[in-house]
């Protein structure tokens, strides 16, 4: 068993999610001691955020979404497509509590760091290929998160252009096309073509309902995700599907912001069990392996101490 296969297998989630010591929420202590990636994303002004391999995306929509991504392995239309989930830190635009959290960064820094993280994946997935499509999803607002940075990133053409430029300087922006829930961002250059298909997954019928916690059930959010995939498949078969979610718990933790490439989930959503939930952690290290491959080369958009 290699180091990544062993990573997280001995992680035991905390019995109480709301413990006073926020340094041990969602596997923070485990990751702090054993992280295999040990990478840093640096914003243009020099602000730094850690990039780590997570072992527990919690019990909200992020955990459920990773379980939905894992379940795509049983979909014949998407056999062999790489999937994964990345937690993005909150920033001072995320909500009222985040605005007062001095350890969090401005939105611009967060988005620039996010571009470096996603560019690392794009670089690995599109290198040496003539044509590739990657799907990126983010989440809309929810209680305490009025402005979700993952929605800002996948909805921001400028953010995606920066991402592609960091991944491959030879690719330049082309046309953008809206399919409905999905927007296609096309890039080309040096005989290569890349398409980023981006979509925001709403967590409630309206932003107002999301902010007051009147969320969709897990089956509805899963169906919304499937509709996004159906739109993408009218264009072509993606090489990878990567979902982003904000780690709002970092608002309460006075530490440097951290991105987490999650490696396992049980898929729970609060007190509800989605159809993809499991009592045991479902392992999913494929995206993490891609980032470790980038680390072995030691180049690219991230810094490796």
Automatic annotation (TrEMBL):
Superkingdom, natural source: Bacteria
InterPro entries listed in its UniProt record: Peptidase_C15-like_sf
The protein's name in its UniProt record: Uncharacterized protein
Source species taxonomy: Bacteria, Pseudomonadati, Myxococcota, Polyangia, Nannocystales
């Amino acid at each position: 068993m290699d180091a990544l296969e062993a990573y997280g297998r001995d992680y035991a989630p905390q019995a109480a999610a709301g413990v006073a010591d926020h340094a041990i929420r969602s596997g923070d202590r485990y990751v702090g001691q054993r992280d295999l990636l040990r990478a840093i994303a640096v914003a243009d002004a020099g602000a730094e955020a850690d990039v780590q391999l997570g072992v527990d995306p919690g019990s909200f929509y992020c955990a459920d979404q990773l379980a939905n991504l894992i379940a795509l392995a049983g979909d014949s239309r998407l056999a062999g497509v790489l999937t994964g989930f990345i937690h993005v830190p909150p920033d001072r635009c995320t909500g009222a509590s985040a605005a007062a959290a001095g350890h969090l960064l401005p939105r611009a820094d967060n988005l620039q760091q996010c571009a470096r993280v996603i560019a690392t994946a794009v670089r690995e997935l599109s290198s040496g290929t003539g044509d590739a499509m990657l799907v990126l999803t983010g989440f809309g607002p929810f209680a305490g998160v009025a402005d979700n940075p993952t929605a800002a990133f996948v909805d921001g053409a400028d953010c995606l252009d920066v991402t592609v430029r960091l991944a491959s300087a030879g690719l330049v922006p082309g046309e953008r096309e809206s399919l409905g829930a999905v927007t296609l961002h096309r890039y080309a250059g040096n005989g290569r073509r890349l398409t980023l298909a981006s979509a925001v997954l709403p967590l409630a019928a309206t932003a107002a309902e999301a902010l007051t916690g009147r969320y969709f059930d897990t089956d509805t959010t899963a169906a919304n995700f499937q509709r996004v995939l159906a739109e993408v498949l009218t264009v072509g078969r993606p090489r990878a599907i990567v979902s982003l979610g904000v780690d709002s718990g970092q608002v309460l933790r006075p530490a440097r912001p951290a991105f987490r490439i999650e490696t396992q989930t049980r898929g729970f959503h609060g007190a509800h069990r989605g159809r993809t939930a499991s009592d045991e952690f479902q392992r999913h290290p494929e995206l993490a392996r891609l980032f470790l491959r980038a680390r072995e080369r030691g180049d690219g958009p991230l810094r490796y101490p």
